[in-house]
Design brief:
The protein is mainly alpha-helical and about 240 residues long. The protein contains eleven helices and no strands.
Length: about 240
């Protein structure tokens, strides 16, 4: 892989290096209605793209090189993938599902399963501490994702289409249940509460992690607990609401 000394690899290269075996086949199969022959051709093109991207990096690769690697023409590539970026995202999208879900969502699923019937504040605290630990352990990958997304809005769209619906699926029912039981005020929608909590989580993590000289934490989990407590107590039912 061609990289300048002392510089981080672009996100595309990092992600491509993490691709599990068979992901090109999964990406090729993602288009419904394709014939077996078309799927096979797409898979060959995607596998060739992987090899070329890995050797030369995304920016250093050319579609004519990918065509030569795949044993086809550039016209055939453009028939299925209008641009080189379409090739990259055809590969990255199943990767986000393969890696992103286990990394970011399964821990939340486990917390919610173990916390059924427990207070909302306790559950949200565990979720936020878990997010902190994931950020701490995967700081380089997440920083690369943030950096690359600032240059490639398409990557944000891929992430939003996979991650955000899952987040809403887990958190909205949690807030709806707490609201229905009288644990928190009932005049705010679960969608609004989910969005507000996500602002709290991501704002807190970003400030502390990327501006540590200003927002240093001596005891991260203690401060997270206090932050969630402030959030949940601000949602306490108004006087007389459940009487």
């Amino acid at each position: 892989m061609n990289k300048k000394p002392g510089k981080e690899a672009p996100l595309a290269e990092v992600l491509l290096s993490m691709l599990p075996e068979g992901v090109a086949a999964a990406a090729a199969a993602a288009s419904e209605g394709d014939s077996p022959a078309v799927r096979q051709r797409k898979q060959e093109i995607l596998e060739a793209s992987l090899r070329v991207f890995s050797r030369k990096g995304f920016d250093g690769s050319r579609t004519r090189e990918i065509a030569q690697e795949a044993g086809t023409s550039e016209a055939t590539i453009f028939k299925y993938f209008p641009t080189k970026r379409h090739l990259m995202f055809a590969i990255i999208e199943p990767l986000v599902e393969t890696i992103g879900r286990p990394l970011f969502m399964r821990p939340v699923e486990k917390i919610l399963e173990s916390q059924k019937g427990r207070p909302l504040e306790e559950t949200l605290t565990l979720i936020m501490i878990d997010r902190w630990r994931i950020l701490s352990k995967n700081e380089r990958l997440i920083f690369l994702l943030y950096t690359e997304a600032s240059r490639n809005p398409e990557l944000i769209e891929v992430m939003k289409g996979i991650v955000i619906p899952q987040v809403l699926r887990y958190l909205e029912p949690l807030f709806a249940e707490a609201s229905a039981s009288g644990e928190i005020r009932s005049d705010l929608s679960p969608r609004f509460l989910t969005r507000s909590f996500l602002f709290q989580v991501f704002g807190f993590l970003a400030l502390v992690r990327f501006h540590s000289e200003t927002f240093a934490l001596d005891e991260a989990e203690r401060d997270i607990t206090a932050t969630v407590s402030l959030f949940v107590r601000g949602l306490a039912p108004r006087e007389g609401e459940f009487k």
